[in-house]
Design a protein that fits this description.
Elements: E1 4-5, H1 7-36, H2 45-70, E2 72-73, E3 88-93, E4 98-105, E5 116-118, H3 122-127, E6 135-139, E7 145-154
Parallel strand pairs: 1-2, 4-5
Antiparallel strand pairs: 3-4, 3-7, 6-7
Length: about 170
């Protein structure tokens, strides 16, 4: 399985890896050494926390390197009247009667709370390629689905300022 990512996604991951390996990693190692001097390691909460943070950093580096290794780099295709990657879309959830503005992004930059919806999510995949005025069924699971109406579309670009998701 691979994730479909853009060149910008790859660049942002490479930048984060470089930061974590050259700046954060040495800082965390120094903190481990500093807290190790506090005495008995079995009761040294500061040392345990420093060690946990170092492992977390190393895990994030492994995750990012694996994402890059397994990624399928995609090109952004823009069709003037169809929803595509990085477009801003205003939708109406017919079940809730609520309007919402979202932006379609890659999985790596999704953040539903901020309105960044992955193109691979149920909502994102349902509306990709659709047009303003279309009524679309969003299937969340075998037993849960809802309709949205596409109210407006603003064409977007791959914005380098959109952060990549953490974990």
């Amino acid at each position: 399985m691979y994730d479909e990512l853009t060149e910008v996604d790859i660049k942002k991951m490479e930048e984060e890896i470089l930061y974590r390996e050259t700046k954060l990693g040495p800082e965390l190692l120094a903190e481990m050494k500093r807290t190790r001097e506090f005495g008995d390691l079995s009761e040294n909460a500061e040392y345990k926390e420093a060690k946990r943070e170092k492992r977390k950093n190393e895990g994030r580096i492994r995750y990012l390197k694996n994402m890059i290794r397994t990624a399928k780099v995609i090109e952004i295709k823009q069709d003037a009247d169809r929803i595509g990657l990085f477009d801003r879309v205003r939708i109406l959830n017919e079940k809730m009667g609520a309007e919402k503005e979202i932006q379609i992004v890659t999985t790596l930059r999704q953040n539903a709370l901020l309105g960044f919806v992955s193109k691979e999510s149920p909502l994102g995949s349902a509306i990709m390629g659709k047009r303003v005025g279309d009524r679309v069924l969003v299937s969340v699971s075998d037993t849960m689905s809802y309709y949205v109406k596409i109210l407006s579309l603003e064409k977007g670009v791959d914005n380098e300022e959109l952060p990549i998701s953490g974990y």
